[in-house]
Amino acid sequence: MKKILLSAAALVMLFSCQNDTTETAPETSAVAKRGCASQEVLAAQMKADPTLALRMSKIESFTEKAMLSGRLVNGNVEIPVVVNVLYRTAAENISLAQIQSQIDVLNEDFNATNSDFSATPALFSGVAANVGITFVLQNVVRKSTRTTSFSTNDAMKSASKGIAPTTPTTVLNMWSCNLGGGILGYAQFPGGSAATDGVVMDNNAFGRTGTVSGVYNLGRTATHEVGHWMNLRHIWGDANCGSDLVSDTPTHDTANYSVPAYPHYSTCTGTPVEMTMNYMDYTDDRGMYMFTNGQKSRMAAIFVSGGARAGFGI
Ligand SMILES: [Zn+2]
């Protein structure tokens, strides 16, 4: 079990150090390894706006207090979702069925009704969580674009080059577009600018039907990105044997890819079995199928009164 008592100062340092973090991003359009750019985007935002680190460290202190007080929501948060579709080709203009399939995946994964939840190893069954958050598709906004491939510079979220978010304090905005650079998706953490709030997915990793392809065909890219949007970190803490600020996840060496054979042992202190099936690792979609109670508490803390996403709360 990891210690998660971090002072505000230590957190600012932690975030600063994450500027050094890199993730594999192959230069081809076919994504060979899972690439999520959330941490890189966060590092860039922190460089551009020094007050972001302070806002995020305040969110961390609030999260710790909310978790200690037990004053958390349980199954009462319903998230309205607006899906913004940017398309250059007919295929990129993904169908409503494909969009709804993504909403369905989120509802299953965040309520432990996903069919593979039962594959959770006995070692982790005691901490496997029903997060109890539901998602409702409120609207789909479509816009054609001449952009062949978007990057992580948030252009898809601008009114001029993309689609501006709908009321981000009360709506989860998701963008589907053609993302380049081997990136499957990225999210903005709580504390960032409202103008760029939400999650972005490559249209080939959006939902579980239509244009989805390869090993990212079960909608788990969005489950992972929405986890970030709700303040979850990568399970390896974006560092060798790093901390994800959650007490019931094992310490991982680094990201895991493909679908590792169980048990996969960490070489970090205590050599624990790694929780490679956690949504916040980097495995193929079929390899990830659980959140933990500790992750649930972190997510719940942002929705209570005073929390970073209290606009969605009870
Ligand atoms: Zn990620």
UniProtKB/TrEMBL annotation:
<feature type="domain" description="Peptidase M43 pregnancy-associated plasma-A">
    <location>
        <begin position="216"/>
        <end position="301"/>
    </location>
</feature>
<dbReference type="Pfam" id="PF05572">
    <property type="entry name" value="Peptidase_M43"/>
</dbReference>
<dbReference type="GO" id="GO:0008237">
    <property type="term" value="F:metallopeptidase activity"/>
</dbReference>
<keyword id="KW-1015">Disulfide bond</keyword>
<comment type="similarity">
    <text>Belongs to the peptidase M43B family.</text>
</comment>
<keyword id="KW-0645">Protease</keyword>
<keyword id="KW-0378">Hydrolase</keyword>
<keyword id="KW-0479">Metal-binding</keyword>
<keyword id="KW-0732">Signal</keyword>
<dbReference type="GO" id="GO:0046872">
    <property type="term" value="F:metal ion binding"/>
</dbReference>
<dbReference type="GO" id="GO:0006508">
    <property type="term" value="P:proteolysis"/>
</dbReference>
<feature type="signal peptide">
    <location>
        <begin position="1"/>
        <end position="21"/>
    </location>
</feature>
<keyword id="KW-0482">Metalloprotease</keyword>
<keyword id="KW-0862">Zinc</keyword>
<protein>
    <submittedName>
        <fullName>Pregnancy-associated plasma protein-A</fullName>
    </submittedName>
</protein>
<dbReference type="InterPro" id="IPR024079">
    <property type="entry name" value="MetalloPept_cat_dom_sf"/>
</dbReference>
<dbReference type="InterPro" id="IPR008754">
    <property type="entry name" value="Peptidase_M43"/>
</dbReference>
